[in-house]
Amino acid sequence: MRYTLKSRFQGTIAGALLGLELAKDSKPEFIRQAYIESTFSCKSLIAQGKFDSNSFCAINQADTALNQEVLLNTLFSALPVILFFHEDLSKLRYNLLEVSRAHSDNLIVRDSVLAIGYTIAQSLNEKLSQSSVFSEIIRFIGETPTNTPQQLETVNSLLNQQVSLEQAFTELHKVNTLSNVVAIAFYTFFKSLEDFYLSVSLNLNGKILSFNNHGYYLSSVMTGALSGAYNSALGIPISWQMKNLSHLSAKTAVPEFLQMLKLTDELLAIWSGVCEFDNQNAKKSKGKDLCNYLPLLEQSSHLSVYAAPRIIRLR
User: Fold this and answer.
1) What tens digit of pLDDT does each residue of 146-164 get?
2) CATH homologous superfamily for 5-245?
3) Which residue, 46, 25, 34, is CA-closest to 204?
4) Cα maximum dimension of the chain
5) How far is Cα 122 from Cα 186, in angstroms, rounded to an integer?
6) Average pLDDT, the chain
7) Which of 46-50, 123-127, 222-226 has the lowest mean pLDDT?
8) CA of 151: how far to CAs of 121, 169, 197, 230, 264, in Å?
9) CA distance readout (Å), 183 to 41, 73, 309
10) Does residue 215 register a pLDDT over 70?
11) If DSSP codes are grouped into helix, strand and coil, which group holds residue 248?
12) How far apart are the first and last CA of the chain?
């Protein structure tokens, strides 16, 4: 295994959050809502050990309107679900459809979440192949009236032709829909597949502003999640991780970023079948918490246990 599953889980969530916070056109309310959506989704899966669509419907009202916020909230709500069901693609697809319906009836939101979800799952399963992934995603989405499949085919063609960044943006925005956001995210991810910093930085490049009318923070979030899953938390620059430690939770006075990574660890434990945690880390100093949740500073004595779902059981 190239990276531990723990590091890939953390990389997915941290990558998406960092992509949002680093984008100049993201707003504080977007960031707050992203934490709310991902935290609720994680806690629901941890508490029940399964996906419960009724819980999601209880806090989200379906909306046929399509805007950046709807897609953003749906994506952050879906990320923990993607992590939890990554090894079973049929369950993953079914549950992602439920998450999408809970937020919006819009088909572009649905197709976007399915495309991102499938790609992250393949990274976690270490089965991601650039040569075949686009056709696989299109099959995973299924029949749809949106132009998402066509945009993904265009991305694949542009990558094969090795065109410039500006030329790619020009081509992808000939048809101006929110599907462009997904297309740009996939292009920048695969353009620098092995480099998280460069992939996300391509989205932060000022040139994109002249093409994208939908707010380029969305493509930055998607690229961050995709590259974080592929390159793991180890690929995320420490300087970028530190940016997230200044925002404290109003309830606990602990950085929300650390709280989210702790929830991600608990989600992995529940997925693995571990039913009891060693909570001693919660009693440690803030400085040691920082070591535990910044991957490149992990203590050498830190032990992790991994197993297939429901193999490790409470005795």
Assistant:
1) 999 999 999 999 999 999 8
2) ADP-ribosylation/Crystallin J1 (1.10.4080.10)
3) 25
4) 59
5) 14
6) 81
7) 46-50
8) 21, 12, 24, 22, 32
9) 26, 19, 33
10) no
11) strand
12) 29
